[in-house]
Amino acid sequence: MKKKNFVTLIMSVIGGILFALGMCMALLPEWGAMSQGVVIGAVGVVILLVMVLVRRKMDVKPMIVLNGKAIGTTLLGVLGAIVFGAGMCMVMVWDMLVRGIVVGIVGIVLLLCLIPVIKGLK
């Protein structure tokens, strides 16, 4: 295993676990740890973002690429993730089953639209 893959593996596992644990702490009222969950989730997100920068540095690529395609795909990905997350919240937290499923499916479709945008249509 190459060093960059090992570093990516370790950082993504740590960041993913912290983010997931933070989300559980924040969204499960039985745990009573909303503020602590937000902090732990934010730490997980920061570790994941740093992992992306470290990976790009180890690949000898520029840290951040700002062009039209990169900004467009980022916005589409963020929008899809937010819509998908809102659908999950509607189902699990706010007891809106059917509407939450519909919103979640719209989020999945938005995320699936990233594939042809990134890979390109041939």
SSE layout:
Elements: H1 3-27, H2 34-58, H3 68-92, H4 97-112, H5 114-119
Overview of this protein structure:
There is one protein chain. The protein has helices at 3-27, 34-58, 68-92, 97-112, 114-119. The protein is an all-alpha fold. It folds into 2 domains: 1-63; 65-122. The longest helix is centred in the N-terminal third of the chain and has 25 residues, at 3-27. It starts with a helix and ends with a helix. The mean pLDDT is 89.
User: SSE order, as H and E?
Assistant: HHHHH
Number of helices: 5
Number of strands: 0
Mean pLDDT comes to 89
| Morphology | flat
**Estimated helix fraction:** over 70%
Structural class: mainly alpha
Oligomerization status of the protein chains: single chain
- Count of separate structural domains: 2
β-strand percent reads: under 5%
Give the biggest beta sheet. Answer: none
Low-confidence segments, ≥5 residues, pLDDT <50?
none
Calculate Rg over CA atoms. 17 Å
Between the first and last Cα atoms, what is the distance in angstroms?
Answer: 33 Å
Quick structural summary:
The chain has 122 residues and is mostly helical. Helix content is 80%, strand content 0%.
Keywords:
single chain; 122 residues; mainly alpha; 2 domains; 5 helices; 0% strand; flat
